[in-house]
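User: Hey, quick favor. My workstation is busy. Could you predict this chain's structure for me?
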Amino acid sequence: MHHHGYLWTGSKQWFDDEALRRPPHPDAPPADGKPELIQRHREVKAEFPVVDLPPLETAYWLIKPGKSVRGTWSEPKEAAEWLGLQLIEYAPRFVCERDRDTTRLSVLVVSAAERLAWGGDVSHGFYLERPAFLSVALVTCSPNRAAPDTPCPVGGR
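Assistant: No problem, here it is.
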């Protein structure tokens, strides 16, 4: 078992496009269905696996290309430390003052290490100024509890 780190920042408007943040329905619309539904299904089917938007379900990060992985760790504590470094780096840009509290951020890091230790995933999101959004996630791999049949995106370990 190991853990992958993912980080995304971008436009809140793009983040809010939920169709590209979930895998397409396994069944395509009927051939005689509305053309706009058929086209949208094709777009989502082609784009979901490659677009770097954070997925609605954390385990779906494993479907994304390996280049999306920002780091890989065998130990939960090391992965949580990476999370802590990301939170420290971005905290000055958090819109909500409460989210910048260092004690609160420390609790998130400790909690992440505990969750990863039993095979869980960790996902946090913060609004940044402009309006922008930060998504940072740690995903347990090989296997993932929510998606045990999903192969490792970096092909190793």
